[in-house]
Amino acid sequence: EYGLERPQGYNVSFHYNPHVEYHHFGSSHPMKPWRLTLTKQLVLSYGLEYTMDLYEPRPASFNELAIFHDREYLSYLSEITPQNAKPDDSQYIAYGFGGDSNDCPVFDGLWNYVSLYTGASMSAAYNLLNKQSDIAINWSGGLHHAKKNLASGFCYVNDIVIAIQLLLTQHQRVLYIDIDVHHGDGVEQAFESTDRVFTLSYHKYGIDRHGWPFFPGTGNIDEMGPKDPANRGKAHSLNIPIDDGIDDHQYKWLFRTVTSKVVEKYNPQAIVLQSGADSLGGDRLGRFNLNIKAHGSCIETVKSFGRPLVLIGGGGYTPRNVARTWCHETAVCVGATLHNDLPTHIPYLQAFQGEENGDGILYPDLHNTKRHDNLNTDPALHKLVEKAMENLRYMEG
Ligand code: ZL4
Ligand code: CA
Ligand code: ZN
User: Fold this and answer.
1) 183 tagged catalytic
2) Is the separation of the CB atoms in 246 and 376 below 8 Å?
3) What are phi and psi of 180, to 5 degrees?
């Protein structure tokens, strides 16, 4: 009736607290928590809720956030409001709220917001630990830039680091994979001194025609963690820098080739996959040319490794396409195939109507919607894969 077929049997859980939707970063800020409302509506309209276990996790506590973050930073974060914020204050600037950036605004309910998305990532990790789920999903998380005492790039608390810390209580080796268009620098840095977490990020890297590096400016191919041979974290990070306009075929090949090799060599006991949707074509901040099914093929690839998996959100700045992608990827997890025609009874249908090539459908053609020419040549990508393979040889087996 919903166009839903479900041949495979994975235990999938969906961790979502709807209170997270109602937070606003400020008018015209690219990060829009209401994209999660759209995502949930699509997931429900296809009937996917009947194929998963649904959880409404409680917010994470101060002490839980202190698994990773400095208590002084958390105290500041828990007390700051738009009313009491002092932009000239030295702590305000030191903790990443200052500058002319506006990337990390102080908004109403900020502490509630960070506790909610982190609580959902923790709930997902716990479900793997008690073996309740093979795959646990939290689309509200994935805030990969936050550092232990610094807000950065729309991220205040690093829910991914905290979820990985929980997985490390039972698993010897955890693989972190990041397909957000931005470099997963916060997660990489948090685990730079351990060999129990391997971090792999695919991202846009480079300098634009005005001389500005693409945020956060790190993640070149030669950045593979500490160089000191005595440091256990040496060679346990792999970065895949990509140029503007990469297409479906190239990205799928790159992702499958490199990720398979990492899984084969590192043999992780659990995987955390950050599925930022800003790597889609037509994203407000991104530069790639990926379609929804190419992005989703990365989830299929990771699922095929058959390891316990936490799947989390991240960036994504064209809300209707974020919702389409995460709905499709939820279906991939449960093994369902969805009709291209959107169910007609969905509450937010108008959000998916009136587009030139996406009117009323789940899978619009996103290739070149923002006219980013493909600057990635096949020979350059082959060289990149060669270098990645060479980097992997430095990791002890
Ligand atoms: C905005 O319109 O590259 C913030 C940020 C706020 C509202 C009005 C304020 C206008 C684009 C971005 C001033 C905007 C100044 N408003 C933005 C070096 C920068 C300094 C800030 O997906 N200016 C900084 C961060 C990146 C920079 C990307 C991705 C997160 C994730 C995981 C984080 N910061 C240059 C930009 C706007 C804004 C419009 C913006 N910020 C675009 N890219 C950035 O990886 C969730
Ligand atoms: Ca990335
Ligand atoms: Zn991003």
Assistant:
1) yes
2) yes
3) -60, 150
**Pure H helices in 267-334:** 292-304, 319-334
Distance between CA 146 and CA 123 in Å, rounded?
20
- C-alpha distances in angstroms, 317 versus 179, 264, 322? 15, 33, 7
Q: Which ligand is nearest to the CA of 29?
A: 1
Residue nearest atom 10 in ligand 1 by C-alpha distance: 102
Alpha helices in 46-184 (DSSP H): 62-65, 71-79, 90-94, 110-129, 159-167
Ligand 2 centroid to Cα of residue 81, in Å, is 30
State how far the Cα of 189 lies from the Cα of 210, in Å rounded to an integer: 28
Q: How many CB atoms lie within 10 A of CB 217?
A: 13
Residue type, 52: M
CA distance 215 to 234: 24
Q: Helix or strand or coil: residue 165?
A: helix
Q: Is there an atom of ligand 1 within 6 Å of 314 CB?
A: yes
Which residue out of 24, 32, 36, 102 has the highest number of ligand 1 atoms within 8 Å of its CB and is therefore the one to mutate? 102
- pTM of structure: 0.97
Among protein residues, the one whose CA lies closest to atom 9 of ligand 1: 102
- Length in residues, the chain: 397
| pLDDT, tens digit, 9 for 90 and up, residues 77-131 | 999 999 999 999 999 999 999 776 699 999 999 999 999 999 999 999 999 999 9
Reading the block at residue 165, the tokens are 């810390």
Determine the Cα–Cα distance for residues 200 and 302; give it in Å rounded to an integer. 13
